[in-house]
Each structure stands twice: as C-alpha cells, then as structure tokens.
Amino acid sequence: MDDIRITELNPLPTSRTNSILTTMSIRAVIIGTGSALSERSYGSSAAIVTEHGLILIDCPDAILRAMRDASKTSGIPLDAMRITDILVTHLHGDHVNGLETIGWKHWIARQTAPAAPPRIHTIEVVARRLWERLAPSMDQNGSAKLEDYFSVNVLEPGTTTLISDLAVEVRPTEHLIPCCGFRISRGGATLGWSGDTRFDPSHIDWLSTADVIVHETTESRVHTPIACLNALDPAVRAKMRLIHMDDAFDQTSTDIAVLTDGQVLDVSPSGR
Ligand SMILES: [Zn+2]
After folding, report:
1. Across residues 129-156, what is the average pLDDT?
2. Residue 172 and residue 197: Cα distance in Å, rounded?
3. Kind and range of the H or E run holding 67
4. CATH fold for domain 26-267
5. What is the C-alpha separation between 141 and 138, in angstroms, rounded?
C-alpha cells in the first residue's frame, strides 16, 4: 500500500493512530444476508464496530429493526445514532432503502443537538445519482439538499481512504447498475466485501489479498452462482463467507461457510 495516496478524512493524533493500528482485528456484525427477494433475511449488510462508532456496509430496508435484531442475536450494541459512516456498494433498494431512515433520524436529532451528519462513501457513478434517489422523499419541498443529511465522499479506485480507523479501498464491479466492492483494513487484518457482482475472477483475485472475503451468491446472470465459487481454489474458498442468498439456497451445495443474520465476523491477520 506504500505507493497509494492516503486521504485522511478525520486525521487522528499520531499516538492515537498508533494505538489503533495495533488493534489487529476487525469486528463486523452481519446485519443481513438475504438477496433482494428474500422473505426471511434482511438485505446484505454489516456494521463494523470502531472506537468512534459504527461503520455500515450498505443500509437495507427496515434498518432500525434489522440493527436491533442483529444486536440481540450478536449481543453487541448497535445504536443507529452511533453510525458515523456508511459504505454504499450501489443503489439497489435491498442495499440502500434504509438511508432515508438513517438520514431523517440523525437530521431530527441534530435539530436540538448539533453534530456532524453521517458520511456516505462510494464510487463517483453511484454518488452522482444518490440525491436523485433520495430527493423525492427528503427534499422538504425543495428546501433541503443531500448535504443536510449526509456528507458524501467519493472513493477513487487505486487509492486508500482512512475512514475512522479503517483503511478502505474500492473496486467497481460488474452488476446491473454501477456497483463496487471493498477491501477494509485495520492493522494487519483485511476484510474483503464483494458487493453485488456477476462472477468475476479478476474481482475475486483483488479480494483474495484479504484475510476473510464476504462474497455474494445468487443464481442470476448479474450475480455469482454458487457453482462458480465452488470451482475456486480451496485456499480462497476456505476464507470465503457467503452472503446475499435466496431463500431457496441449499447450504449442502457448497463447502463455503454461509453467514447468518446477526453473526459476528472477527477478522484477524492470517499471516499472509
Ligand atoms: Zn444489486
């Protein structure tokens, strides 16, 4: 990563940075594991626990109930008011329908207790249309703007951005609409998050430097069928965890571990 520009959004004092970088693990609470059409699981998403608050990866439908349920299952407090940042993969509803709720909840709180709005991080093609998607329900008859609810930070492929105490890299994926995946690092540990993607060996190569890869699977030409993942190198399969499953997904069809709603995913350096 030495040749990559680091954008410090919220630089920390050096001594503090050092103490954070020695925390050699990432804790993510999986909020949901379902595909867009799942009737029993929340949309694929997670909350990463940092010492500054929570960083969401995507923000699905019924986000407050989903976070409460994940908190109950995991035993880890997940207060929506502690969300500082949201990494957005793309604008399909099963990944962003909760943004309106989080935006309003924080906006209402700020009317009496000034605070910085949550930050949204995504690639430029997704950021460009974010307000187009939120405005009809949030523009307060034309008087409010996206910045009234969220600050938006565009992530550039090939650069590393420091978000809270995590170093985040982004890579566009091939999906039905613009989408991206992430590599999220703290200390020596890296979590790979595929985002929605058709089966793409080059994307899996990029993710494979991570210690744990959360990869989507759904039987569709714009997603990744399980048979494609089953054919991967055993070392990659061993560190892969599946998400974005249809309700009909057959767990016996694969030896790759399947995530569940509310599961705690601790990522530690694997000594790569
Ligand atoms: Zn999608």
Report:
1. 98
2. 9
3. helix 63-74
4. Metallo-beta-lactamase; Chain A (3.60.15)
5. 8
The pTM of the full predicted model, rounded to 2 decimals, is 0.91
Coil vs helix vs strand at 18: helix
* Percent above pLDDT 90 for the chain: 90
> Measured in angstroms, how far is the CA atom of residue 179 from the centroid of ligand 1?
8
Signed CA dihedral, 252, 253, 256, 261: sign only: negative
Instruction: Give the DSSP letter of residue 148.
Output: G
On the question of pLDDT at 110 being above 90, the answer is yes
What is the C-alpha separation between 216 and 92, in angstroms, rounded?
14
In angstroms, what is the span from residue 265 Cα to ligand 1's centroid?
22
Tokens 């093609």 -> residue: 125
111: CA distance to ligand 1 center in Å? Answer: 34
pLDDT at 13 over 90: no
Residue 208 and residue 236 in contact, taking contact as beta carbons nearer than 8 Å: yes
Q: How far is the CA of 135 from the centre of ligand 1 (A)?
A: 21
Q: 192 CA distance to ligand 1 centroid (A)? A: 17
Q: How far is Cα 272 from Cα 267, in angstroms, rounded to an integer?
A: 13
CA-to-CA distance for 174 and 177, rounded, in angstroms? 8
Q: What is the pLDDT of residue 1?
A: 40
Report CA(90)–ligand 1 centroid distance (Å): 7
Which tokens is 162 given?
């420091």
pLDDT higher than threshold 50 for residue 15: no
